[in-house]
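Notebook entry, structure prediction.
Reason for the run: the old model in the group folder had no record of what sequence produced it. Starting over properly, with the input documented here first.
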Amino acid sequence: MTDTTTNELLTVDGLGGEYSSLTLPISMVDKVRPLLDAHGIRYWVDENEYTVNDDPPFTVITFHRGTDTFRVQELLDSAP
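New structure, fully documented this time:
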């Protein structure tokens, strides 16, 4: 899945670690959540939105400890 603001692939931060997250534009949350839900991935979306240097607002999805983040990354990579 490509980040709509950078045109780069979405990448899980902390891949393979105990704590991992995904930083993404607010506009993509409604596209990513159904994908994660459909595959039983446990996560929560930060209720805050952030912006840096007038870039579009973004937020963070944090994955439950113990989540197979390599699987999450594979799902993101295979999604249109």
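Summary: DSSP finds two helices and three strands in the chain.
The old model has been moved to the deprecated folder.
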